């Protein structure tokens, strides 16, 4: 079996340091493994949080990237799910215990022992995991998903995080025809939330700091668009929504947003601020409202999401960049200067 000891990659050598070209080793292809030639890797805001230790102590050198799309070039002797030439994706985790109640339910992201992150983690052998800002990846076949033929690899890559992160809560809270959904923020996550909620049949409202992206929001499927910088927005929309999906990593005035929910409505966080937030319990008690969070999805639900997107004819809105533009792209993400996901062409690494 192939063992790759010098795979080109881009890594952050230390916290907050610029990413630079390097080489990493990938493990030997085992009997249940597939070797993926990575074609595209999305840049998620969580890559920046982790490379800069915004979420706590991290492992360096770090090769970020958990929005991975590529083609299988080798399969292990016991692989049954895939063949050479298959188009596959890899998301935020590459392993789990496979035995706990959540793994057995197909909710590997909630593994009791902790799923193994695609990067900034250690595998079952104690070796560091390295992500998609590289040319190749070896992974157990059970943790890859099939990219439908109707989706180009470049627009599919961000679906492996941004797509499933928004699809999973919308599905869990039974969004569909008749639902009124608000998406807070029209960025990498938010634009997918709009597309998916619209495709599910919901009436979709975007809540953004300004009206700067209103035309984009409406093009992506939003029925309404409001600026949160306008105090009248919160008066006009009070009690309007069944679900509010917050995709931003900024600290929000949660009580104000809870006022926009209907009775039994849910405010669901998928953005993860680096600082704590506070909430007045009376904002929840009145109207039996829910303040919730949602992570990603399991392997089966991620496949369901990809099939859903292919069926409805959309992927992410992307800007493809060369690898030497990664550091510039990080600064642009922080400045909200991307519409709406940077995707690295890994052939340039």
TrEMBL record:
SUPFAM superfamilies: GroES-like, NAD(P)-binding Rossmann-fold domains. It is an enzyme of class 1 (oxidoreductase). Its cofactor is Zn(2+). InterPro entries: ADH-like_C (IPR013149), ADH-like_N (IPR013154), ADH_Zn_CS (IPR002328), CAD-like (IPR047109), ER (IPR020843), GroES-like_sf (IPR011032), NAD(P)-bd_dom_sf (IPR036291). It holds the Pfam family ADH_zinc_N. Residues 17-344 form the Enoyl reductase (ER) domain. The keyword Glycosyltransferase does not apply. CDD domains: CAD1. It catalyses: a primary alcohol + NADP(+) = an aldehyde + NADPH + H(+). It comes from the Bacteria. Keywords: Metal-binding, Oxidoreductase, Zinc. GO terms for molecular function: alcohol dehydrogenase (NADP+) activity; zinc ion binding. Its EC number is 1.1.1.2. The keyword Metal-binding applies. Belongs to the zinc-containing alcohol dehydrogenase family. This is alcohol dehydrogenase (NADP(+)).
């Amino acid at each position: 079996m192939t063992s790759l000891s010098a795979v080109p990659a881009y890594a952050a050598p230390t916290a907050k340091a610029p990413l630079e070209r390097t080489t990493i080793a990938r493990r030997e292809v085992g009997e249940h493994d597939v070797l993926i030639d990575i074609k595209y890797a999305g840049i998620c805001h969580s890559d920046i949080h982790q490379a800069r230790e915004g979420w706590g102590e991290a492992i360096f050198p770090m090769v970020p990237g958990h929005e991975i799309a590529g083609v299988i070039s080798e399969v292990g002797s016991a692989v049954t799910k895939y063949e050479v030439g298959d188009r596959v994706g890899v998301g935020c985790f590459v392993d789990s215990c496979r035995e706990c109640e959540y793994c057995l339910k197909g909710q590997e992201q909630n593994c009791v022992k902790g799923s193994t992150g695609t990067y900034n983690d250690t595998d079952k052998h104690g070796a560091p995991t390295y992500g998609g800002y590289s040319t190749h990846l070896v992974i157990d076949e059970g943790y890859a998903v099939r990219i439908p033929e109707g989706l180009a690899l470049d627009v599919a890559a961000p679906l492996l995080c941004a797509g499933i992160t928004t699809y999973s809560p919308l599905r869990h809270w039974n969004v569909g025809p008749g639902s009124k959904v608000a998406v807070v923020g029209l960025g990498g996550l938010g634009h997918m939330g709009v597309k998916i909620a619209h495709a599910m049949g919901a009436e979709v409202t975007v809540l953004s700091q300004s009206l700067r992206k209103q035309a984009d929001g409406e093009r992506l499927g939003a029925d309404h668009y409001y600026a949160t910088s306008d105090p009248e927005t919160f008066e006009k929309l009070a009690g309007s929504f069944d679900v509010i999906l917050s995709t931003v990593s900024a600290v929000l005035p949660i009580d104000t947003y809870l006022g926009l929910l209907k009775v039994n409505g849910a405010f669901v966080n998928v953005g993860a601020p680096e600082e704590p937030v506070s909430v007045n319990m009376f904002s929840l008690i009145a109207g039996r409202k829910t303040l919730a969070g949602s992570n990603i999805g399991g392997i089966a639900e991620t496949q369901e999401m990809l099939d859903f997107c292919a069926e409805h004819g959309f992927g992410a809105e992307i800007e493809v960049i060369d690898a030497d533009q990664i550091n510039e792209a990080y600064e642009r993400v922080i400045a909200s200067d991307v519409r709406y996901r940077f995707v690295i062409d890994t052939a340039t690494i």
